[in-house]
Amino acid sequence: MRVLFAGTPAVALPSLEALRAAGHEIVAVLTRPDAPLGRKRVLTPSPVAARAQELGLPVIKADKIDSDAAAAIFAAAPEVAAIVAYGALIPPSALGIPAHGWINLHFSLLPAWRGAAPVQHAVINGDEITGASTFLLEKGLDTGPVFGTMTERIQTTDTSALLLERLSHSGAVLLAQTIDGIGAGMLSGIPQQGEITLAPKLSLEDGHVNWGAPALAINRRIRGVTTEPGAWTMLSGQRFKLGAVLPRPDITALAPGHVMVSGKDVLVGTGSHAVELVDVQPSGKKLMKATDWARGLANKEDVVFE
């Protein structure tokens, strides 16, 4: 089929490649405009835009679908639109441009975790199983009928970044199969059923660790906000970024937020038992091993995270 592909970040690239491999004609690519990156804030095309340009595909850059973008989409004459993490809402006026509508690849088992950050919320919530769904976009937030799903077990060491990487590839297969089925007239959507949960975009504050929470909840939160928006705590009035932590149920007497250096281990107290720091990033420095950071502390017994 003639497909308009809408996506912006690298997580959308496997879907673009899967649709091409399945023999669909990508008539245009809709993506967000170039964004400033790096310390010098150099305007840089999105990963999807860069790949589309390499492939010689027409690119429509728009941070929202205004009249100009809608006209460009209409001119491309797509039969269906496939959307993966485009990053902006599709207005009702544009939903009807492709005859078969807009098919969204969403990284959850709908209606669970409707919204912008489904993978992060699944990890933070402690879900054991997640997955991806393809569904028809309509006016509501991720409310349309579902065409297909696939499941993925969440590992106890998964960060949201690792899990999303796996889902981007398995979900790409699902999306290509969905477009195949729609094109062949063999697939129709089924209304969503089950408990509705919401997954709004995470803010920087969502990465602030509450050391009074149980160690399990802290571990899940840190994994869920890695790599975006990132886990952090406060130390001496400055933000102190955190990498992975390991459970230490053998240490229960350490007060929440208090740091203890024991041999090669750097431990922090929580509301249950301690956790062991693996990687940290003090303010103004690069990511380093927690043991290297602790080695430079002047007074190891007075360090308290807030």
Topology at a glance:
Layout: E1 2-7, H1 13-21, E2 25-31, E3 35-37, E4 42-44, H2 47-55, E5 59-61, H3 67-76, E6 80-84, H4 92-95, E7 102-106, H5 118-125, E8 129-136, E9 146-153, H6 160-183, H7 215-224, E10 231-235, E11 238-242, E12 245-248, E13 259-262, E14 265-268, E15 274-277, E16 279-281, E17 288-289, H8 290-295
Parallel strand pairs: 1-2, 1-6, 2-5, 6-7
Antiparallel strand pairs: 3-4, 7-8, 8-9, 10-11, 11-16, 12-15, 13-14, 14-15, 16-17
Brief descriptors of the model:
four-stranded antiparallel sheet, alpha+beta, elongated, 26% helix, 306 residues, seven-stranded mixed sheet, 26% strand
Structural class: alpha+beta
- What characterizes the major β-sheet? 7 strands, mixed
| End-to-end distance | 55 Å
Proportion of strand residues: 25-35%
- Cα-based radius of gyration, to the nearest Å: 22 Å
Number of strands: 17
Q: Could you state the order of secondary-structure elements as H and E?
A: EHEEEHEHEHEHEEHHEEEEEEEEH
